[in-house]
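quick one: arginine bound model?
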Amino acid sequence: MKKVVLAYSGGLDTSCCINWLRDKGFRVVCFSANLGSEYSPSELRRRALRSGADKIYIKDLRREFVYGYILPSLKAGAIYQRKYLLSTALGRPLIAKYLVEVAHKEKAQFVAHGCSGKGNDQVRFETSIKILNPRLKIIAPLREWELTCREVEIDYAKKNRLPIKVSKDKPYSIDKNLWGVSIEAGILEDLGNEPQEEAFILTKSLEKTPSKPQYLEIEFEKGRPLRLNRKKLDLVSLIQKLNQIGARQGIGRTDLIEDRIVGIKSREIYEAPAGWILYTALRELENLVLDREVLYFKELVSLTYAQLIYQGLWFSSLRKALDGFIEKIEERVTGKITLKLFKGNIIISKRESKNSLYKKGLATYGEKDLFNKDWAEGFINIWALPFTER
Ligand code: ARG
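yep, here:
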């Protein structure tokens, strides 16, 4: 019998996928990754088996996600279209990697996912899979089946006695992991609608945030966040902690009209408190310790890096090569940034680093000025020379 390994989330789509694949004559092995969404493994297992899976692998990939995907992306300063820290996009190649691994272990020739036919995630999964093993055959039930809307899917699930929570139509599509939450569909599809409070699952609305600011000190070593308020934390806990703290202060909400890989403009709202706090602090430290040429070039790298992640090219040679550049420049990015969080704002309060390039003696307008003003005139003559008509 043919065997397929399915990326399983436990939701309605992937539960229907199990049944649909079985109807097509497959034995279905599920794979579920924990990237930091709250879900219970026993519940996942129960649902997968009840839906007709033979077997399910469940893996806690939070550490690998944080150190192998989030951290490189943070150091690279990757943000898509200025507002999206790429939480969903970063998770896909990691899930794809294990999907391929489980397929090898199970000697399955097929892999499947529950992504829709007009989104980015199908591109990310399949591109990653093709790079890792071009011989695996990929099935995308949602591009093929006749279950064209949620209502039809719910009927199908009921008819086949699949274990779905037949909730009142959930108004949004949500994807959550440690690096953030992506929320789309429902009333957000109308651009005249401001996101309603109930759409957010992590962050407090500004109206409900504390009336006093909260201070935080983040210490980085070679670009890696190491300590929070002087306490050494592994990166998983540090991100979780910052998500809590930031969420309480209403930090990290964005609302983006984004360009999907498949050419569609769509609207999505995001929550990423820890991500924005760390990104802001690291940028600030970089401004202090990196020279201007490196900073300029890094901006270009950040844009490209974000684009590669968004477009499903995590496993490309270019991404790996850019990591080489980033690792090199981050060698001197060590120091501490103190932030003040207040009403959704991240305010810089203090910057300290042994590698600081800031020289007060040069910058000062006070008495102890070390800058030689005599050099300025000649410098400007030469600087302006190419643009000066004689
Ligand atoms: N637009 C984001 C991306 O392409 C998130 C996609 C998934 N969003 C969701 N709400 N399920 O990375």
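The CA atoms of residues 69 and 90 lie 6 Å apart.
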